[in-house]
Amino acid sequence: MIAVCIEPGSSDSLRLEDRTEPAPGPGDLLVEVLAVGICGTDHEIIEGDFGHPPPGRDRLVLGHEAVARVLGTPEGSRFEVGDLVAPIVRRPDPLPCPPCAVGEWDMCQNGRFAEAGIRGLDGYATERLALPEEFAVPVVAATGALGVLVEPASVVAKAWEHILHIGARAVWEPKTALVTGAGPIGLLAALFALDHCEQVYVLDRVADGTKPALVGDLGAIYQHEGLTAIDQRFDVVIECTGDTGLMLEAPEKTRPNGIVCLAGVAGEGSSGAAGFARDMVLENRTMFGTVNANRRHYEQAARVLAAADHSWLERMIDRRVPIDDWRDAFRREPDAVKTVIEFLPPGSPSAAS
Ligand SMILES: [Zn+2]
To answer: In this structure, how many other beta carbons lie within 10 angstroms of the beta carbon of residue 284?
Structure first.
């Protein structure tokens, strides 16, 4: 059985390896992977900047965004053979801390969590794996291989949940949102934003191609001439690029009581911090960071994807690479929105049937 593996901390160590077949334990599903999405975190791991292998090992199976089909179930399972699932990335720390103890591992307080394909736990870029049932989220059949988007969508579901919680500190009816960045997280943030807001802007650098078309078809407004070209303020700004300049400018684009959500991973450095802090205080603005997601966010993500326009979601995955050409999948394509490795062609019969 093949798996895409890497030695974390060592660049140029990406390999396709032969692995032994999984041996599901009690409570584990046996699943076959249909597709694995690739994101910026994978590229950071490939470049040797991030990631940890499982304890006592050198190599890590990559891949944390996946959709898989159930091949075998444990006794008394709520799943059936043939069901589709999205595996959850993060696993609670062993202590566990108070949030992990109640299933809110996305808010882990001691940092001792594991993450499949990222730190301390093998990922999903493999043909088959044993998956504890409690970390499998049902994906309805109609969503199909688009279930590969459940993980990135879960991060957005969590961000919106927190935005709405923070908004509920006062009377607040958000009508407008700005999303910075039209990558997968930004596009999914815009999809979710339209559930809450009448008007959604998406800002990105590229002037044409897939991104402006996807934003327009969603019913949002695309802007590529920079933040200063947008002569409007918003109830919600979701920053998805990690660009420090945009992060610091974002609060200026909020209306009074506006909320800035940072969903992009920040680089180092800051400037104009004093003025920024003053504005934050004087307009009761809230800025919060968000990462990862727990089960209810995955379940919400799966519901939103099931109800969304599937042809739009299909176009978001604009680069599909068969596993035989796996190395191509990890080549950076800056203009591509979402790259996915296909382990099984869409609609292929299950090994279980
Ligand atoms: Zn914890």
So the answer is: 12
Which domains are present in the chain? 2-139+318-342 (3.90.180.10), 154-289 (3.40.50.720)
CA of 299 to the centre of ligand 1 (A): 21
pLDDT score recorded for residue 193 = 98
- 147 Cα–ligand 1 center, Å: 27
What pTM value is reported for the model? 0.91
CA of 261 to the centre of ligand 1 (A): 22
Q: How far is the centre of ligand 1, averaged over its atoms, from the C-alpha of 56 (Å)?
A: 22
Residues with C-beta atoms within 5 A of ion ligand 1: 93, 97, 100, 108
pLDDT band, very low/low/confident/very high, at 221 (cuts 50, 70, 90): very high
Tell me the pLDDT of the chain averaged across its residues.
93
pLDDT tens readout for residues 72-107: 999 999 999 999 999 999 999 999 999 999 999 999
Say how many residues make up the chain: 353
CA–centroid distance, 79 to ligand 1, in Å, is 27
Q: Distance from CA of residue 314 to its chain's centroid?
A: 16
DSSP H helices in 65-183: 98-101, 150-167
* Residue 95 CB coordination number (10 Å): 12
**Residue 57: what pLDDT?**
97
